[in-house]
Amino acid sequence: MGKLTVRALRAVLVVVLAGTVFVQAGMVWALVSGSDPEDGSLPLTPLRVITILGMLSVQVALVCVWRLVAMVRRGTVFSHAAFRYVDGVIGAIVAAALVWFAVTVINAPGQRDDPGVTVIMGGIGLAILGVALIVLVLRMLLAQAVARDVQAAHMQAELDEVI
User: What contacts 24+ positions apart, CB below 8 Å, involve 151-159?
Assistant: First the structure.
């Protein structure tokens, strides 16, 4: 991975992390101060709590991706240490899907006249879970690569003994 690519990715990660922290701070401020009273159209307090949790799942994924990028730059991504960060990304994506399903459930009563919105939101939740499955498949590919790397190192050691 080139330096420009790493710098660009890290810049994006920093901007997204700063944005999520800003949104979280705004939601916490609204919850603590009570400055935005609910008008009854939507239950805002649960939505704010869900937003805070959703931003937390994004932040976990961002930190894990940051660590994986650092491992790629050092050339250590094909090690067992990388699995912890990939598992963190998978967990964060599953948590984001659960948060989205919670938003769907909260929003559903207001969509009685148009249940298609709730169905679409449920489909988006399934798509988020699909992303988690894709990352799980990529984790399996990483496991195969790590196993081959270990096997190649073992064969190289045997060859060094013979020579």
Answer: none
The sign of the CA dihedral 45, 51, 52, 57 is positive
Helix ranges restricted to H, the chain: 3-33, 44-74, 81-107, 116-162
Amino acid at 82: A
How many beta carbons lie within 10 A of that of residue 75, not counting itself? 8
Q: Burial code of 21-48, b = ≥16 C-beta within 10 A, e = fewer?
A: eeebeebeeeeeeeeeeeeeeeebeebb
Q: SS3 of 41, please? A: coil
Tell me, what amino acid is at 63?
A: V
Report which listed range, 135-139, 144-148, 157-161, is most confident.
Answer: 135-139
End-to-end CA distance of the chain: 34
Place of tokens 């998978």: 90
Is the pLDDT at 86 greater than 80? The verdict is yes
- Give the global pTM: 0.84
**Whole-number pLDDT of residue 121:** 93
